[in-house]
């Protein structure tokens, strides 16, 4: 039986992490403040009912994490976000919004402006199941972000650093099998990281299918796929059960459903599933990696980007055993080095690279092997 994430041990910290809560509802502010305090290891240093108040309080109270609502009077979250980061550049901002298509688009815009993560707010505090899930996700994200060391720069601006020696040395490079499918797994901080990798890969994207599992709510994955299509000028959409896996197409796992694959008459096709979550996740990176190892074997190539938890590690074992190549993002450029760090610590990474070197490495492997 899975252990409740709220009961997991809290990492020891010298001082509580400073949190600011920004929401126009006094009820929501009080509820979140209570949950944050009860989680332990956090100090709610201030609350604000609109964006302008949040900017003023950020300068005064120096929060390390800001929980920012989108829809507020006077100054909304989208407008306030860059102002808060200007006042307090070291703050990590989690955007909070109700699940609507409009809010999903705004949330993704907030991520592009420097927010590190997002949370889907329940429609009503009386929706007990939704509120309980929101609380679990909130505490998990706070703990993951609190455990990371503060950085002076954001990943997209970091120059290529020297890659630190991991706990276990990287695996030797796989053979010269022509890659036939690129797999990407990511979570916290993932949307911006995925964008960066795919933009760096644009010259070779037409030659290979790309399958992405990004931990996101259902409404968000469709909007994310739409955004990628605009960015890349290539077919990008939520995967559909039974569709073929074709070169030049980017498929995003739908929120709330696992994305895997099977081989039918010699052709790989998508298989969506409502099976139970794995690693508390659905979609889970493990499902995609495991099934891709069975279908593509050594012709798969995978990268695990920033994200909390360890989703992807078990699936990576299957990929490595099948002869596939696995690349992990390094700690210095990850918002949270949970998923890629787990890959590295398990000795499953062929390369450990900063974000702005991953696309270049993948491009070399894809283009080089296809010559």
UniProtKB/TrEMBL annotation:
Domain of life, source organism? Bacteria
* Entry annotated with the keyword DNA-binding: no
Species for this entry = Microvirga vignae
Could you tell me the keywords of this UniProt record? Chemotaxis, Cytoplasm, Hydrolase, Phosphoprotein
Residue span(s) of domain CheB-type methylesterase: 172-369
Do you know which PROSITE patterns this protein is assigned to? CHEB, RESPONSE_REGULATORY
Query: What does the sequence similarity comment in the record state about its family?
Result: Belongs to the CheB family.
Indicate the segments annotated as coiled coil, or none if absent: none
Chief location: cytoplasm
Query: Which catalytic residues are annotated?
Result: 187, 215, 311
Any one Pfam family here would be CheB_methylest
Role description: Involved in chemotaxis. Part of a chemotaxis signal transduction system that modulates chemotaxis in response to various stimuli. Catalyzes the demethylation of specific methylglutamate residues introduced into the chemoreceptors (methyl-accepting chemotaxis proteins or MCP) by CheR. Also mediates the irreversible deamidation of specific glutamine residues to glutamic acid.
Q: Which residues form the Response regulatory domain?
A: 18-136
Q: Where in the cell is it found?
A: Cytoplasm
A cellular-component GO term for this protein? cytoplasm
Q: Which InterPro entries match?
A: CheB-like, CheB_C, CheY-like_superfamily, Sig_transdc_resp-reg_Me-estase, Sig_transdc_resp-reg_receiver
Its UniProt entry gives the catalysed reaction(s) as: [protein]-L-glutamate 5-O-methyl ester + H2O = L-glutamyl-[protein] + methanol + H(+); L-glutaminyl-[protein] + H2O = L-glutamyl-[protein] + NH4(+)
Keyword Protein transport present in the record's keywords: the answer is no
Provide one Gene Ontology biological process annotation: chemotaxis
Q: Name one GO molecular function term.
A: protein-glutamine glutaminase activity
Annotated region Disordered: the residues are: 150-172
Tell me which NCBIfam families the record gives.
PRK00742.1
Q: What class of enzyme is it?
A: hydrolase
Question: Taxonomy-wise, where does this protein's organism fall, top ranks first?
Answer: Bacteria, Pseudomonadati, Pseudomonadota, Alphaproteobacteria, Hyphomicrobiales
Written domain comment of the UniProt record:
Contains a C-terminal catalytic domain, and an N-terminal region which modulates catalytic activity.
Q: What is this protein called?
A: Protein-glutamate methylesterase/protein-glutamine glutaminase
Per the UniProt entry, the Enzyme Commission number(s) are 3.1.1.61, 3.5.1.44
């Amino acid at each position: 039986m899975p252990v409740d994430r709220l009961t997991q041990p809290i990492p020891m910290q010298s001082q509580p992490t400073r949190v600011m809560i920004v929401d126009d509802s006094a009820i929501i502010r009080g509820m979140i403040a209570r949950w944050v305090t009860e989680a332990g290891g956090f100090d709610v240093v201030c609350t604000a009912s609109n964006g302008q108040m949040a900017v003023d309080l950020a300068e005064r109270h120096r929060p390390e994490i800001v929980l920012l609502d989108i829809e507020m009077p006077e100054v909304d979250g989208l407008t306030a976000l860059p102002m808060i980061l200007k006042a307090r550049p070291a703050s990590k901002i989690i955007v909070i919004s109700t699940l609507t298509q409009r809010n999903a688009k705004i949330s993704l815009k907030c991520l592009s402006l420097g927010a590190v993560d997002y949370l889907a707010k329940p429609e009503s505090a009386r929706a007990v199941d939704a509120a309980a899930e929101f609380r679990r996700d909130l505490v998990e994200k706070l703990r993951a972000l609190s455990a990371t060391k503060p950085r002076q720069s954001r990943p997209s601006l970091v120059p290529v650093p020297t890659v630190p020696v991991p706990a276990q040395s990287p695996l030797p490079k796989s053979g010269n099998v022509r890659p036939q499918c690129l797999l990407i797994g990511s979570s916290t901080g993932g949307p911006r990281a995925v964008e960066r990798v795919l933009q760096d890969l644009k010259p070779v994207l037409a030659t290979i299918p790309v399958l992405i599992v990004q931990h996101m709510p259902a409404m968000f994955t469709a909007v994310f796929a739409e955004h990628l299509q605009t960015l890349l000028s290539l077919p990008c959409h939520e995967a559909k059960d039974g569709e073929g896996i074709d070169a030049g197409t980017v498929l995003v796992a739908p929120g709330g459903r696992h994305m895997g694959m099977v081989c039918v008459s010699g052709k790989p096709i998508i298989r969506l599933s409502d099976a139970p979550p794995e690693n508390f996740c659905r979609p889970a990176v493990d499902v995609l990696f495991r099934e891709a190892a069975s279908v593509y074997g050594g012709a798969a190539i995978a990268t695990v980007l920033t994200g909390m938890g360890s989703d992807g590690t078990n699936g990576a074992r299957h990929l490595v055993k099948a002869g596939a190549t696995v690349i992990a993002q390094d700690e210095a450029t990850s918002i949270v080095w949970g998923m890629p760090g787990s890959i590295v610590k398990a000795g499953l990474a062929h390369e450990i690279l900063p974000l702005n070197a991953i696309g270049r490495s993948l491009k070399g492997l894809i283009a080089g092997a296809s010559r």
